[in-house]
Every structure is written in structure tokens, then in C-alpha cells.
Amino acid sequence: MKRLLTIAGSDCSGGAGIQADLKTFSALGTYGMSVITAITAQNTQGVDAVVDIDKTMVKAQIDAIFEDIVVDAVKVGMVSSSEIILQITNSLLEWLPPFLVVDPVMVSTSGRRLLKPEAKNTLIKELFPITTLVTPNIPEAETILDTKIVGIEDMERAAKAIYALGPKGVLVKGGHLLGDAVDIFYDGTTITKFTSPRIYKKNTHGTGCTLSSAIATHLALGFDLVTAISKSKDYVTKAIDCGIAIGKGVGPLHHFHQFYPSTVSD
Ligand SMILES: Nc1ncnc2c1ncn2[C@@H]1O[C@H](COP(=O)(O)OP(=O)(O)OP(=O)(O)O)[C@@H](O)[C@H]1O
Ligand SMILES: Cc1ncc(COP(=O)(O)O)c(N)n1
């Protein structure tokens, strides 16, 4: 069975962060592990509080896993401070997992800042150059590049500009635009467009976390980047369509099980 690791923040309400990542790994028939970078108190209505985990504890968690277990792919989500980002980068450079997908989480759907402004440059300069794929949404891509994105051509330009910052691939996610849900992938040579019909449903908490975890999982399972993104977009589209109406705000996705029989036993 493939072994997946998420390095991210905890969402006690189970919709985003570590909890969404572990549900995705499990739903796709893999074994999930977690390194917690921050604890948030949040629910479907918003984020009430955030406490960072000390960087020595982040390092200790990463070392505990890699000293003992072979990791097939890593996904990084919420990392709020420069010192935690630097620690994660140094640890991953030491342990060298085969695939690294970075979701540059900056602000929650409910509007709470999850990345300190001064940590943005550390994320870009230190972590981006060692990633297989970085998956910004539109506001994140705008913040990374200090530009405005209003349509598909802007997304393509942004994907190329973020690629120039060092990652092997960039997926600019279009969930925040109107019309079809279009994501743009650039790998240094080719732009690939992934389109799915927009689902007009309310429960979309954790879509970005779920997509990046699903991509890391499909890379670990042996799919190339384009196929991994395509399969993961299918997964997240179905998960949004079956979103769960719990809480008073934006509810979570439904992580239905989708095993790959040929890989479950290896
Ligand atoms: N209403 C929707 N219908 C169909 N697909 C969607 C919808 N909203 C987002 N998506 C898709 O979900 C994935 C995540 O995109 P999005 O831009 O929402 O990321 P995000 O903002 O990081 O997510 P989050 O809601 O967790 O912050 C993308 O593949 C996007 O195209
Ligand atoms: C711990 C954690 N990580 C990521 C998100 C972003 O998810 P969303 O944009 O759906 O709020 C979040 N709210 N909490």
C-alpha cells in the first residue's frame, strides 16, 4: 500500500487541512500520515483561533516518520511562519521524498489569514524550488505575483510566471472565477487546461486541500502529472457534488471511496 504524508494545519471540524488530506488518502486506498504545523479552532462558519506548533516539534514529527517508514509522496498545506517553512524545507531536503505537492494556503474560504505576510517570500524562495507541483488558487497566484487575474489568459500567464520561481509544475486553480471550473497546468513546455462544469452547491470547504492531496496520491500511485491532475479533478468534482450539509456555514466535501485494486496490495 502506498504511504502518503501531509504536512499541514489541523481543522477540528474535519473539512479542510490535515483531516481532509487524511480522508482523501484513505478514500483513494492509500495509507495516510500527518505532521501537524498548526492547530486551528474552526468550523463551517470560520476560523476562531490558530496556534502554531513549535518548529522543533515539526522537525521531530517529520524525522519520526522518515526514520521508520518509506514515504511515497508528501503534500504540504498550511504553514504559517517563515521558521516553520524553513524547517520543513530543510527536513525534506534531508529525506528527499519522491514527490512533493505544495498547496500554498494563504487565506481560508471564510477570510482568515493562515500565512503570515512576511512568510510569503520564504515559501516562494525556499519551498517552491523543491516542489513537484504547486497549486495556487486565483487569490494566491495574485498574491505570489502581485498581479490581477481575471480570465484564462491571465491564469496561463500566471502559471508560467510561477513556474519561473522554481517548481517543476504549476496548477493555477480556477474555482474562484465564474463559469466552468477551469484549472491551468504548466510544466515548463506545455499548458494543459482541465475543465469541469461548475457545481452550484454550497458545501465546498476544503476543495483545495482535497485536490492537492489527491494529486499527491495519484503521483505516488504511479500516474504522470497530467493524469494525476485529471483523476484528482474528477475526484474533487464528485466530492463537491456530494458535499455534506453539516453546520451553519460552508460544509465539507464527501470523500467517497475509490480504490485502485491493482495498487492496494503492493
Ligand atoms: N463550484 C465548483 N464546481 C466545480 N469545481 C469546483 C468548484 N469550486 C472549485 N472547484 C474546483 O475545485 C478545485 C479547487 O479549486 P479552488 O480554486 O476552489 O481552490 P481553493 O480556493 O484552494 O479551495 P478552498 O475552497 O479549499 O480554499 C479546482 O479543481 C477547482 O476547479
Ligand atoms: C487547517 C486549514 N488548512 C487549510 C484551510 C483552507 O481551506 P478552505 O479555503 O476551504 O477554508 C483551512 N481552512 N484550514
What does this entry look like structurally?
It comes from Clostridium formicaceticum. Belongs to the ThiD family. It catalyses: 4-amino-5-hydroxymethyl-2-methylpyrimidine + ATP = 4-amino-2-methyl-5-(phosphooxymethyl)pyrimidine + ADP + H(+); 4-amino-2-methyl-5-(phosphooxymethyl)pyrimidine + ATP = 4-amino-2-methyl-5-(diphosphooxymethyl)pyrimidine + ADP. This is Hydroxymethylpyrimidine/phosphomethylpyrimidine kinase. Keywords: ATP-binding, Kinase, Nucleotide-binding, Thiamine biosynthesis, Transferase. The chain is an alpha/beta fold and 266 residues long. The chain has a domain at 3-131 and 208-264: UDP-N-acetylmuramoyl-L-alanine:D-glutamate ligase (3-Layer(aba) Sandwich), CATH 3.40.1190. The chain contains nine helices and nine strands. It has helices spanning 17-27, 55-68, 82-95, 120-127, 138-145, 152-163, 207-220, 225-241, 261-264; strands at 3-11, 31-43, 46-52, 73-76, 100-102, 133-134, 170-172, 181-186, 191-196. The strands form two sheets. A six-stranded mixed beta sheet has the order 3-2-1-4-5-6. A three-stranded antiparallel beta sheet has the order 7-8-9, sandwiched between helices. Strand 2 (31-43) and strand 3 (46-52) form a beta hairpin. Adenosine-5'-triphosphate is lined by residues 16, 109, 137, 173-176, 181, 183, 196, 198-199, 204, 206-209, 211, 233, 236-237, 240.
